DNA sequence: TTGAAAGCGCTAACAC
DNA sequence: GTGTTAGCGCTTTCAA
């Protein structure tokens, strides 16, 4: 390639990288030769001498799933803009596999590592004394000094409750996932606290179960069967909320007229397919990924930001809470979903 | 590191790679020194001299989505086992971005490239005359000589229809996605053909719409309103099927007793949350990814397998078709979902 | 059995 | 303005 343009390799390098000063015509000639040959500088050779690979590793501790994907996409987005390439590593919930990936990444001399996963529960650091910066995204490390970018779930729960209060609901129930699950606990406690701040409490004891529609349906049935008087349900997930919606409708309750509903996750396909479309708390997982990537880049450039960083949630209002003032009984608004076969009403 | 073990770099290299012959004690000494120092050979240096990076690129032509993810995971799985690392590139439906990624991958000297995406529709080759092997996974290239691993959707449709026939249904309707969408067309045509083979035809003209629950609900309503006589619906997707299920139930039809339902995709969360749980066609996307990775590895090793390779589907039977012999009217089996609030029946 | 040296492809420092 | 050279970290060949 240098030969084709009849210059030395050094000159060719400078020409292609816009470094040094040289006759414009030479630069042009080199560029054309490179173009003609489809020449592309070898990243390996380059990083060998630069001591930097412009490469980062992304490890999921558990399998890649619904939550880690948006995080990864956000990170990839931010990283790609900075011309960094991303190594994908699916930990598959297997510590051995995880450590193997870590070794691989280290021998590939990645400039940094992003660790992500499914649950908010803190996990032990991926390894002590790593020679490169690590940022935890969505999950956190048990070491509070490790850099992690987290969702402020308390903020999400607060916004959910405040939204329900704002549309005039006062008798709010809560249906969520497993009680021992940190997200369920945080959301419940925070919601209760916010209610207390308004001089209220849950309209029924909070109900814990699975993160599934089936559980939501079941819980709705139980709430009704136990004769609780409630005009809203704050649900721990969109799937649960959707189950609750179906359960309520099957029992003849109208959403949002009789009972308003707020979910959590803002999982588009769930929230939109719900009847009626579901108001939900969005954790902005892509934003989490992007923020994590930005912090990693900063750390790589010598500006680390140790500690836990919480990001706010955003409430996305849809028709499951679309009542500003409670209508007089009997004044039911038109059903929202034009395409839907009419529910029995 | 060589210094710590008091050997030359050449010896150290041999010791660590198990190459050459040497005093076992020396080998041991080197290994311990390496261990102590956390030494890991630089992949960059290694591939510089080997001319091979043990790295492949994975590009999605459109955004990374529900279909490409399992494909990617399957590929990553197969590749990881072969100690290859994977570069993740999200094309975001942007040709510029895609070409940029391609350049990056090429300059990183990946050993091969996997291209994947959302739709079955063939796409133009990602670039002509690439210096490394390329395998298309789930999508195919318009050039029939390019290696692509594809889902045999006709097989899936056939299995769906045969399953319905096997449980004694004869009046089968079809509700699917957009008519111009290749998957919708293939599935419909094949199903019609298989019915014809049994001397039957669709119980109603096939209905095309969106890949959404709302459309499914709507279509169910229309089918009923038009007075069609049908005892099964083969749906183009799980979401549509779920909408149909809801639409039928809202109109008082029982699934599977009155109408059996088969979906497509076997999207667990949809299929399981459906009432009743949905029988569906599984495209084994992870298998597609694994197969693509295996073919890429073979091509890298000089054994290319040009052309389109189709993989069969698998039917996953659940309760939406759980009737072997049609029960006498009135002999309704117990509702399947113990957790669910009872639908009105 | 071990060491020395060349060379993979590139960039940066320096000489011409 | 351009060419030469050293050296990034490794493997491999060949000599000792």
Task: Give the structure's gist in a few sentences.
2 copies of one chain form a homodimer. Chain A has 345 residues and is of the alpha/beta class.
Structural account:
The structure is a homodimer of 345-residue chains. Chain A has 345 residues and is of the alpha/beta class. Helices cover 41% and strands 15% of the residues of chain A. In chain A, the strands form two sheets. The first copy, chain A, has a six-stranded parallel β-sheet, sandwiched between helices. A six-stranded mixed β-sheet of chain A has the order 7-6-8-9-10-12, with helices on both faces. In chain A, helix 10 links the parallel strand 8 and strand 9. In chain A, helix 2 crosses helix 3. The longest helix of chain A has 16 residues. The N and C termini of chain A lie far apart (75 Å). Chains A and B meet through helix 4, helix 5, strand 2, helix 6 and helix 9 of A and helix 4, helix 5, strand 2, helix 6 and helix 9 of B. Chain A binds a DNA duplex (16 and 16 nucleotides) through helix 2 and helix 4.
Strand order of the largest sheet of chain A: 2-1-3-4-5-11
Helix content of chain A: 40-55%
| Counted beta strands of chain A | 12
Rg from alpha-carbon coordinates of chain A: 27 Å
Average pLDDT over all residues of chain A: 92
Structural class of chain A: alpha/beta
How far the N terminus sits from the C terminus of chain A, by CA atoms, comes to 75 Å
Order of helices and strands of chain A: HHHHEHEHEEEHEHEHEHEHEHEE
User: What oligomeric state best describes the polypeptide chains here?
Assistant: homodimer
Region (Disordered) (chains A, B): 324-345
Protein name (chains A, B): LacI family transcriptional regulator
Keywords (chains A, B): DNA-binding, Transcription, Transcription regulation
GO molecular function, one term (chains A, B): DNA-binding transcription factor activity
């Amino acid at each position: 390639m240098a030969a084709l343009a009849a210059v030395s390799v050094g000159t060719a390098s400078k020409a292609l990288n816009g470094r040094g000063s040289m006759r414009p015509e030479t630069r042009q000639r080199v560029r054309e030769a490179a173009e003609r040959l489809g020449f592309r500088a070898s990243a390996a050779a380059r990083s060998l001498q630069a001591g930097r690979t412009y490469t980062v590793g992304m490890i999921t501790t558990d399998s890649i799933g619904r939550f880690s994907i948006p995080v990864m996409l956000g990170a990839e987005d931010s990283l790609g803009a900075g011309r960094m390439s991303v190594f994908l590593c699916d930990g598959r919930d297997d510590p051995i596999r995880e450590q193997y990936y870590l070794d691989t990444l280290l021998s590939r001399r990645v400039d940094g590592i992003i660790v992500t996963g499914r649950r908010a529960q803190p996990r032990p650091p991926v390894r002590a004394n790593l020679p490169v910066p690590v940022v935890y995204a969505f999950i956190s490390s048990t070491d509070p000094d490790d850099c992690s970018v987290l969702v402020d779930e308390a903020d999400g729960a607060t916004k959910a409750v405040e939204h329900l209060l704002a549309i005039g609901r006062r008798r709010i129930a809560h249906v969520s996932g497993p009680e021992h699950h940190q997200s369920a606990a945080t959301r419940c406690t925070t919601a209760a606290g916010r209610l207390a701040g308004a001089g209220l409490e849950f309209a029924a004891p909070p109900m814990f179960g699975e993160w599934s529609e089936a559980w939501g349906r079941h819980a709705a049935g139980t709430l009704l069967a136990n004769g609780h008087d409630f005009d809203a349900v704050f649900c721990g997930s969109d799937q649960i909320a959707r189950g609750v919606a179906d359960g309520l409708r099957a029992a003849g309750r109208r959403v949002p007229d009789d009972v308003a509903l707020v979910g959590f996750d803002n999982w588009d396909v769930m929230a939109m397919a719900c009847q009626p479309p579901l108001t939900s708390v969005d954790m902005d997982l892509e934003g989490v990924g992007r923020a994590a990537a930005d912090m990693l880049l900063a750390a790589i450039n010598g500006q680390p930001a140790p500690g836990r960083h919480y990001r706010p949630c955003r409430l996305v209002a849809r028709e499951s809470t679309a009542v500003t003032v409670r209508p007089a009984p009997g004044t039911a608004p038109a059903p929202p979903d034009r395409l839907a076969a009419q529910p029995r009403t």
